[in-house]
Amino acid sequence: MKKDNQPEDIRNYGASGIVFDAVSIIITAIAMLSIVFTFGFRMVGVNGSSMENTLFTDDWLLVTPYYGEPQYGDIVISTKETAAEGALVKRVIAVAGDEVMVTDDDSVYVNGIKLDETYALTRNTHGKGDRTYPVTVPEGCVMLMGDNRDVSWDSRYTSIGYIETEHLLGKARLRLSRDWNIYENFTHDATKD
Questions:
Q1: Rounded Cα distance, 49 and 110, in Å
Q2: pLDDT for 47-68, tens place per residue?
Q3: Strands (E), 127-186
Q4: Number of domains in the chain
Q5: What is residue 69's predicted lDDT score, i.e. its pLDDT?
Q6: Residue 98 region, left (φ>0) first, then alpha (ψ -120 to 50), else beta?
Q7: Which of 42, 79, 125, 182 has its CA 20 to 30 A from that of 62?
Q8: Please, are residues 46 and 59 in contact by the beta-carbon 8 Å criterion?
Q9: How far does the chain reach from its first CA to its final CA, in angstroms?
């Protein structure tokens, strides 16, 4: 006979009770992970050289959803289906309503201001793509470019196009490099001095 305030003997619990508890724990864990990945963050792997020397193949990015508008210099992940295979990891160069001009000397101007693109590995901006400049970024969209302009498939190509903000998975907040170093402030607003 069980006395008050004594724990129940586990042997009386039964196999079905143990299975029920295990299933409950698994379902709760899956639900919590779904909420975290939907509203909190995701880990996204980098594959390719289009963002070198900022990001490298086998780096991992901690990505959080946007709760505002994308900003200049943000590194974002686009899930829009384009001519490129898979998700795009690129830098925001211009936002809706901005006028972008790429000159013959590979300089990029946004609303008449020359961008300070110290992050760009290569400057072959004008020689790639099939756009005629100047262009104006449509409402609800951003213009993306990779930091390694020689190899980047980005918004300079009409087959990639402007990216609707609804197709942005989010902004990269942390970078975990392939040698296990963690980097935070790797985005850059090229419109500021």
A1: 25
A2: 889 999 889 999 999 888 877 7
A3: 135-136, 141-145, 163-164, 168-176, 182-183
A4: 2
A5: 87
A6: beta
A7: 125
A8: yes
A9: 79
